[in-house]
Amino acid sequence: xxxxxxIQDLSCGYPPSxxxxxxxxxxxxxxxxxxxxxxxxxxxxxxxxxxxDLPLLQGNIQLDGRNIRAMGLKDRAKRIAVVTxxxxxxxxxxxxxxxxxxMPYRSQFQFLESKQDHEIAEKYMKLTDVYHLxxxxxxxxxxxxxxxAAIARAFTQEPDLLxxxxxxxxxxxxxxxxxxxxxxSLSAELGLTVxxxxxxxxxxxxxxxYLMLLNKGKLHSKGTPEEVLTYTTIEEVYETVVITQTNPxxxxxxxFLVSNKMLLKSEENKxxxx
Length: 274
Fold this sequence. Notes:
Blueprint: E1 3-14, E2 18-28, E3 32-36, H1 43-51, E4 58-63, E5 66-67, H2 73-79, E6 80-83, H3 94-99, H4 115-127, H5 143-156, E7 161-165, H6 173-190, E8 193-197, H7 201-207, E9 210-215, E10 218-223, H8 225-228, H9 231-238, E11 242-246, E12 253-257, H10 260-273
Parallel strand pairs: 3-8, 3-9, 6-7, 7-8
Antiparallel strand pairs: 1-2, 1-4, 4-5, 9-10, 11-12
Helix pairs in contact: 4-5
């Protein structure tokens, strides 16, 4: 299968304080990939480098064989949608905010959205559960509702590549599952390539089919969740004792934390047996 997104020798950051080392990976079209790693490992720096918010110090990024930086802004906006951690709370209704995702498709002298634009926006507002909020202003939404609206706008853009920075951070568990199920479904059905920063290792293991683990500005490991989410790797990178097992239904890895209290109790039991 042909690579769709290719990152070659990418380096970016804020030298001399922090610099992301040479990053290399490639994703097939339709792959749902996750970027994981401890705080300060370089996840957001990598995300900003791919989005174009940070200049590259080295390397290049290709989308379907084309250099992203050489694309025109309109062409890039049709192909790539970005959802950041914080949503700009504009004083406009949710529906108008979501319709902003259709702006790359407007002709030069088109000032109003078409019927098709409204139909597409309505479709994704319903799928992300914000349709009932369509007349409410973004400023008056909760953080979770704003995040859902931002995801709806990204889907309305109908991109080939979806970049998500912690899309579930402000959502309750039901909306986390709803959004990740939707992303997973669209990735499979439409060939949508997804690259998502995510802190929750269990969500990453359950939903992503490919993971990249960053640590101290370098790509520590990459591969399937089963290859990356081993207890030895997690303990090495996160410096935390964990237990990993397999979800009996999905066969995906599950990570269990172990508190200091339980560690001490385990040691006491071992001492008593000795």
